């Protein structure tokens, strides 16, 4: 969705510095801790072998563990699982007009790493899109089943801007020459240490319902709400841990179990007490919650599972 700074804010607004506490709209009740971060995403794929070739060679993940029908992937020299692939043999590709995953986003530790990744994609002839979102620069790809992936690097927080209580985000062209210069002489050797899942972006059926669930029930702050057809939410003043949009269309339906899809995504909270508090509040406002050992698992109004866990 290419919506530029001009489209959203006009030509005159450069905004004000987005100092801590100067932007965002908190939920009226329970709020997730500032130290919230994301954990693994679980994806259903049609062929584990084919997917591993892509996730290892194109994206640069390392396989941490593998058992029949499942692979756990992470960054170089790290045992932290970022992506779990689950094979459903002959699952159909992602269908058109599906609710659920738009993309999951891999956050690299710095701009130089993103420049090296871009150069790597060029060298292997991979197709990708791109966007400068003011707070970050991003590259977009699809995996062999059509699941959306973003690889990005954040700009320093002191460069972020706001208009009123809203953080400024847009989709402007990327300066590829400057980005590749930032790579320096080093070569891409895979996802570097410090890589994490930065955010998840979902197709939803209704923005107001998404806000009611993910902000008022789960406890994320609303950060950006003027981007057409979208709402971005986060904890701790981040630009977004979650994006939601209605771009799949008014008649979009959740992905069936027979298709490649996002099975669940994970929110990591600082303590088990934080998980308990979130679970109690989600249930109190009328949403189903199940406990799986110390984790709490719920689902949004369109069936996307969200796991809350203590790190």
Can you characterise this structure?
- The chain is α+β, with helices and mostly antiparallel strands.
- It has one domain (5-310): 2,3-Dihydroxybiphenyl 1,2-Dioxygenase, domain 1 (Roll), CATH 3.10.180.10.
- Helix content is 20%, strand content 34%.
- It contains six helices and 20 strands.
- The protein has helices spanning 5-9, 48-58, 111-124, 176-182, 207-217, 272-284; strands at 16-17, 37-45, 62-67, 70-74, 83-87, 98-107, 129-132, 136-142, 148-154, 161-163, 166-167, 196-203, 221-224, 230-234, 242-245, 253-254, 261-269, 290-292, 295-299, 305-310.
- The strands form three sheets. Strands 6, 7, 8, 9, 12, 13, 14, 15 and 16 form a nine-stranded mixed sheet that branches. An eight-stranded mixed sheet has the order 3-4-5-2-17-20-19-18, with helices on one face. Strands 1-10-11 form a three-stranded antiparallel sheet, with no helix packed on it.
- Strand 8 and strand 9 form a beta hairpin.
- Helix 3 (111-124) crosses helix 4 (176-182).
- The chain is globular, with a radius of gyration of 19 Å.
- The mean pLDDT is 97.
Index terms:
9-stranded mixed sheet; 311 residues; 8-stranded mixed sheet; 6 helices; alpha+beta
């Amino acid at each position: 969705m290419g919506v530029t700074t001009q489209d959203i804010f006009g030509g005159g607004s450069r905004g004000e510095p987005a100092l801590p506490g100067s932007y965002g709209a908190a939920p009226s009740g329970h709020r997730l801790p500032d130290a919230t971060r994301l954990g693994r995403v679980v994806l259903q794929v049609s062929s584990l072998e084919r997917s591993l070739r892509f996730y290892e060679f194109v994206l640069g993940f390392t396989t941490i563990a593998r058992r029949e029908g499942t692979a756990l992937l992470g960054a170089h020299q790290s045992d932290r699982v970022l992506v779990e692939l689950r094979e459903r043999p002959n699952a159909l590709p992602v269908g058109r007009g599906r609710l659920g995953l738009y993309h999951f986003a891999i956050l690299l530790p710095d701009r130089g790493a993103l420049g090296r990744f871009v150069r790597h994609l060029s060298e292997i002839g991979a197709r990708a899109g791109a966007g400068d979102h003011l707070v970050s620069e991003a590259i977009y790809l699809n995996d062999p089943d059509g699941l959306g992936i973003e690889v990005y690097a954040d700009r320093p927080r002191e460069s972020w801007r706001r208009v009123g209580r809203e953080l400024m985000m847009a989709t402007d062209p990327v300066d590829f020459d400057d980005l590749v210069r930032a790579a320096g002489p080093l070569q891409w050797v895979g996802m570097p240490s410090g890589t994490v899942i930065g955010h998840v972006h979902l197709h939803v059926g209704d923005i107001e319902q998404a806000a009611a669930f993910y902000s008022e029930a789960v406890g994320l702050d609303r950060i950006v709400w003027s981007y057409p057809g979208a709402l971005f939410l986060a904890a701790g003043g981040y630009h977004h841990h979650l994006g939601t949009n209605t771009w799949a269309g008014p008649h979009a339906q959740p992905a069936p179990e027979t298709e490649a899809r996002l099975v669940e995504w994970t929110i990591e909270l600082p303590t088990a007490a934080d998980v308990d508090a979130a679970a109690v509040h989600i249930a109190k406002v009328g949403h189903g919650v199940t406990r799986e050992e110390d984790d709490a698992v719920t689902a949004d109004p369109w069936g996307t599972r969200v796991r809350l866990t203590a790190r």
